[in-house]
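seq:
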Amino acid sequence: MNRPLRRAVFPSLALLLLLAACGGGKQESAGKGTSVPDVPAYGDAIVEGSIGDVSGFLTAVTSDASSHEAAGYVFNGLVRYDKDLKLEGELAESWEISPDGKRITFHLRKGVKWHDGAPFTSDDVMFTYKRMIDPRTPTPYGEDFKQVKRASAPDPRTFIVEYARPFAPALASWGMHVLPKHLLEKYPDISKSPLNKKPVGTGPYRFVEWKTGEKIVFDASPDYFEGKPYIARVITRVIPDQATMFLELKSGGVDTIILTPPQYVRQTETAEFRKSFNKYKYTAAAYTYLGFRLSHPFFKDKRVRQAIAHAADKKALIDGVLLGLGQEAIGPYKPGTWAYNPNVRKYPYDPARAKALLAEAGWKEKDGVLVKDGQPFEFTVLTNAGNEARAKTAAILQQNLAGVGIRMKIRTVEWAAFINEFIDKRKFDAVILGWNITPDPDQFDIWHSSKTGPKELNHVGFSNPEVDRLLDEGRSTFDLEKRKKAYFRIQEILAEEQPYVFLYVPEALPVVHNRFHGIVPAPAGISYNFVKWYVPKALQKHQVQP
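struct:
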C-alpha cells in the first residue's frame, strides 16, 4: 500500500491511483466462457480486497491510500483526471481561466444533490475552501488553498477563485473532495465530525456501513448525476495479508485484488485461473523508497545516505522482489514523463564505494560491524505489515547493509498504527514506504521545508533552501519549460542528498473476475470508468436490493 501524494484525493481517481495509473494498460487475458448477451445490466456486487483499513472518509484529514480509495466512492471534486490523465469537470460543468492565469471561474453542475437530499451549491465549495485554510483543520493538503487570494460564490452555480500570482497546480487542486456545509459547519475540527466515519457525499455510491478491520459497504446512488452505476454494491474487505487475499480471490471471496509479482508470474498462469479472471499489467505511477529520519544522528551526514544507496542492490530487489516486473527508481517521478530527469547522479551497487564513504564519515569496522564514537551502526527500519514486497525488500536491504557493516533490524506494524503512531509522530529511524505519483509534478507537500510538522507529508524532515525555491518556482508558472527546468534541478539535488534511497517503480498488477465487463485499459489504468463496469444479467452472482 502506498500513501497517496497530494491531489491523489480525486474521487474516482483514488481507486485509479491505487490500482494502477498510467502507461497504457495491457489486458493479459480476455473473458472466456461468457456466451451470453454482452449487454450492460444493473445489479450484482463487487468485492475488493484491501490490505489496510480506512482511517476516515474525509480525505482532507487523511493521507493513506485505503481511506482515499474508499472516500472516492462517496465524494466528488470539482475536477478529476480522465482516462488520458487530462483534467475534466466533475462537479464543475465547465470553467474559464483568465488570460493571466490568476482567476478561475467554475460553473457548477445543476441538479446535484447530497446523498441526504440537500442540494449541492457553491456554498459547499466555499465552505470546503475555508475549512482547508482553517488552522483548526489538521490537513496536510492545505498549502494549495492558501495560495488563493480571494474566493467568491456570487450565485449557487458559480464559484470564483483568484490567485495573487500564477499557480500551476491551481486547477488540479480543485479535485479535492467537496464537503457538505450543512452537515459539517458546526464542527470546527472536521476530523472529529461523525462524517469522518459515516460519510455523506455526492458521489456514485452511498455509504452503508463500516465494520472496523472487517469491511466497508457502499450501495449505488440511484440519483448520481452521471447516471446510476451498474454495479449495485461495492464491498471492500480488509484482509491484512496478501497470501490470504489471493486465496480468497481463488475461492470466490473477493473479485478483485492487486496481485503480487509471484502471484502474477507463478500462481495465475493456469487454465483454470484464466477461465475466471482477467489480469492487467502496466507501469505503476508509484515508487518504493527507503526513507531516513534526517534528524537521526546516523543519517545527518549525506555521505552515509549515499553509502547506503551504493550498498542497496536495486537489481537484486527488482529481480528478487518484483520478479523483474519493475524498474529502478532514481527520483520521485515516473520514468518517461515530462518531469522525469534521467540524467541525475546514479548509485550503482558498489559495496566498496559504500565502505569508503562510510569511512570518510568516521565509521570504522570492528568485528564486522561499523562503530563510531563507541556506537555500533545499528538501526531499525519500519514498514507496514502484510505487504509481501516490502517485507522482501527489507530482507534484501538487510543483507546488503550487513555486507558493509551496518546492522538493520526490521519491524513491521499494522498499517493504521504504522501511520498514526510512527510516521505522523516521527518515531522511526528509517522506513520502507511508497508514494503514488500524480500527473502534476508539484511535490511541495513532500519536499518543502515548511511541511515537516506532525501529520504533514515531509516526514523525513528534508530541508534544502534551493529545493524550497525551486518548488515555489515550479508551481508559479504555466511555462512548461520553466517548470521542467525547476523539477529537473530538484531531482539532481535529491539524487545528491539522498533523503530517500529511491528503490523501484513496480508494475501495477490488478486482477478482476471476468464476469465484470466494460473494463477498458487506458493511460489512467482501469478504474477511471468504474461506474460503467457491469455484469451481464446472466452472469450476475449477487442479488442486491439497495
